[in-house]
Structure formats: C-alpha cells, structure tokens
Amino acid sequence: MDQTSTFPGRIRLGMVGGGEGAFIGAVHRHAARFDDRYQLVAGALSSSAQASQRSGSALGLERIYDDYLQMAQTEGAREDGIEAVCIVTPNHMHAPVARAFLEAGIHVICDKPVTTNSGDARMLKALAERHGLLFAVTHNYSAYPMVRHAQQMVREGALGEIRVVNVEYAQDWLAAPLEQSGQKQAAWRTDPAKAGGGAIGDIGSHAWQLADTIAGLPLESLAAQLSSFVPGRVIDDDVQVLLRYRGGARGMLWASQVAPGCANELRIRVFGSAGGLEWAQQQPNELFWTPLGEPTRILTRGSAAMNAAGARTSRVPAGHPEGYIDAFGALYREIADHLLARRHGGDPGAASFPTIDDGLRGVLFIETVQASSRAGGLWTPLPS
User: Fold this and answer.
1) Total structural domains within the chain
2) Is the pTM of this model over 0.85?
3) Domain annotation covers residue 9
4) Which of 14, 176, 242, 377, by CA, is between 20 and 30 Å from 296?
C-alpha cells in the first residue's frame, strides 16, 4: 500500500540518522507523530548500509536507503517523494546532508547546532533562500508554553528595560570519561571533528537560544572561558561566558556537563527595571513573575492569565504534566502548519519557530565563545 496516498493531509517526511543506538532520532519521530501532521515514509538511518536497512525495517519504512545522497536524489525525483527531511546525525554531517536535500528541492528540519562552522551555515542559508525552501532548526526549549509566555511578556514591556539576563544549563553525564567506554553518544559528542564544540555546542547553544528567545536582545560582545576538566578529554566540558547586549543589558551564561547532581538543569532569569522572570525546565509549567516591589507570582500553563503566545504551544488541559517531548511536538506542529500553507499556495507568514537565521547566529555565538577563550577571555564582538 502506498502510504503517501493513504494520508494526503500529512507531510511526507524522511529522516537521515536516528537509527540503532541513537537517542534523538526517536524523539523526533515521536514529536512528528504527536499531532498527526506527518507520515515518515523514507530514511537513511545510519552511515552503515546494513544498520540503515535494519533500522528502517524495524520502523516499517517503505523506502530505506543505504546513504543520504541516494535518498536525496531519488526522493527529489519522485512525484510522491518526501516534502521535508529531518536531519538527526552527528553535527559534522548536518551541512553535507542538508545541502544534498536542499539541492533536491526538499525542505529541511535540522537538529542543533545547525553546522560545525559559520561558513557552512551561511552556505545553507543562501541555498535555502535561493531555492525558496524552509530550513527549520529544532531548538525545542523555545517551544515550551511558558517560554513563549515569557517572550511575549518581554515584548509587551512588562519587565520594563531589560538589565540582566542569567542562563545556565548543567548536566553531569560527562563528569567521568564515559567516551573511553565506547558509549556511542559520548564518543561523538566529545570528538571535536564530529561535534564542533563540547559543552558549548551541545548544551551551551540551547542556553544561548533560550536567552535569545525570551530577552530578544542583540548580543554585541562576550568574554568566555572554556574548560576541559576530565583528564584526557580534548574538548570543553564546561563553559562560562559574560555577555554584553546592545542597549546596555548584561548577562551570564554557564553550561557544564561535569556538574554532579545536575541531570539536565536548564534555567533562565531575566531582570528588568519593572520586574523579573524565572523559568526552569525541571518545572516547565510554571513561570515565576515578580513585578518590582510586589510579591512573586507563579504563572501556570493553562491558567486564565496565560497569554496567546503561550497558549499556542500548549496541548493538554491545565494540571497535566507537559514537557520535553511535548515541546518538540509543538515545534513540529508549527513547522507542519507552515509547510501545509506552502503546499496549498498560501502565505505561511513569519515563522514562529527557529530557522536557519537562528541556526547561523547560534554557530556564530559558538565560534565567538571559542575565539574569546583562545584569547584568554578577551572581550570579543560577535560578527554580523
């Protein structure tokens, strides 16, 4: 049976990477199915042809490819070929895979960071624009309802003039040399040639993007210190960054993968002349709001006080837990709405989700952090 004709209202989706032993591929597949907007029909799920075939068969895929180039060329030529591809490979493969599918006329949904260097990111941005294709980047934390609520509060001036932005992302899973055990995720994430950056690329990029989403301030310069604490590790596992924003606001970013007791702790605080906000991924349905001189208020997802921006990415009634996978699902729903509007010749409007523009700025942030650290923590301007 041809699944693409059976489900005409769904986006025909392909996936590169995400096969046996992968973590994030399954997350993307679950997220894409949340709102029944996609049908996964094709994949090149591993750099090993045999593993790709096994993984694809286990998922019941119609079309399983031995490599991504074959997949891009074949799917781009089919009348019922995929409309979008999800890229969940190690970071160093993002650029060549994305380029192949953009050149085949296929929209791209890519995990972060979008590339390991800004030259490739600029190339992909130009290629997507030249072909008129969507390039989405899955910074999933930006789609939490209370993050969107906080973003809208800042835009509406509830905090007054922004003064301080403080964001941190702490983990402990690499506090020991796990990569030496052969663990797949640790092995490539601590390999500079494949990751492009350690803690700064893996989780620091998420922290930067969360601050960028909520505060919405142009970052002018930074001073950074990258550290590798685990003996024998050749990539950073801890990063500390001071931030200078246009207009005078200041900030701090800390990302660490060697913080015992911190499983996955992402937290942001934004302070302005009229009040402050605090949000933590461990309690994602609550946003702490303190107007200047008044008691702290706990704003909850689904409450009557929730603004339209927050409500747009919420899907379950108040009081029910909603978290990590749900945020990924919200991104995929927004991307699907955009792609379906394009399919039917409509105007999808401005993207409410991260795109290649955000991806490029994220890579420029990573490179500037690395440059500042190499220079001994020198204040370093961000390139435009």
Assistant:
1) 2
2) yes
3) yes
4) 242
